[in-house]
Design a protein that fits this description.
349 residues; Rossmann fold; Dihydrodipicolinate Reductase, domain 2; seven-stranded mixed β-sheet; six-stranded parallel β-sheet; 13 strands; binds NADP nicotinamide-adenine-dinucleotide phosphate
Amino acid sequence: MVKVSIVGASGYVGGELVRILVRHPSVELVSLSSRQYAGEYVHKAHPNLKGILNMRFTGEDPATAASKADLVFLALPHKASVKVVPEIIKLGVKIVDMSADFRLKDPEQYKIWYNYEHPYPDLLQKFVYGLPELHRDELKGANYVSAPGCMATASIISLAPLYKYISDFPLIVDAKIGSSGAGGKPSLSTHYSERYGVIRPYKPAGHRHAAEIEQEISRLAGKTVKVGMSAHAVNIVRGILTTSHILTNEQITLQELWKAYREFYKNEPFVRFMMDKTGVYRYPDPKVVIGSNFADVGFDVDPHSGRIVALGAIDNLIKGAAGSAVQSMNLMLGFDEKLGLDVPAIHPV
Ligand SMILES: NC(=O)c1ccc[n+]([C@@H]2O[C@H](COP(=O)([O-])OP(=O)(O)OC[C@H]3O[C@@H](n4cnc5c(N)ncnc54)[C@H](OP(=O)(O)O)[C@@H]3O)[C@@H](O)[C@H]2O)c1
């Protein structure tokens, strides 16, 4: 059994990590740390786990929690992880960081997108970008993994097979996300009266996840790719849909795209093509991935405007966070990649 600690275990991502790992056959949870809930049963923060797990949150600081484990998940906000990572590295404990603090390889990008000077630029290269679909070989045996952003995950997975087209033509990503994407800490913008019923364009330009999409698609394309991204908050709790447009101005056929997607995703356990000719769910829809680690992918061509359209749907808390992170953990530890994750989505939700 591998000993695992979760820091920030009271949050939404922390809660989903606990829910998945409590049923993982090769993991023993040794410390679930939370400052607000120290000493309380886990079900106080995560009522869905009542009767499933009889553990209490510890109030342990991140290094103490990590020191009890072989691997620690840091489910902390941005800029909180970076403060504790160097100390945990010294302890010889493996890390999966859920924040954005180690996602970008180039420290200059942190100045541009996060408006801060990364305090440990040398550590950025030590972290593997935790997207198994693109970095499986690097993840095998890795010690430090940075879990991707949720909207970046949906965008990158749905766009990666098209990297050849993206390298030559403009790319626009339009993302829609549910309220849990903002985490469990309440604010005026997440207050029910303000959040209910919205289709809110909260970041029409300059969303930080664009930096990750550029990093990963540029790596595939072998040259610098730029993306324009717009993000909207929509009236669901969980789920992300990304609709991406590649303005090719060329006559590309659907058959060509099928070939590109099939070749790229030959044996992916969690990528599904949603491309049915009939029925309600003909294209990716977050509604049918909720609770699962699936990333549903679809695409179309628009000869009229010279566009390729790529669609990606995920549960932001699972494939966009805890599920993908456990998939990475499985690869880091040499387990079957699907362990703990092989569950269908809930329908209807
Ligand atoms: N929500 C998503 O869809 C999603 C998807 C992908 C990645 N992520 C990333 O995952 C991380 C966690 O997100 P979340 O949605 O779970 O947020 P959250 O619900 O706000 O949970 C974060 C937890 O971290 C703890 N915490 C907050 N500030 C801290 C600090 N300065 N030092 C130590 N602990 C602190 C808090 O627990 P206590 O106060 O009880 O200690 C809190 O419950 C973030 O970096 C987020 O960007 C989120």
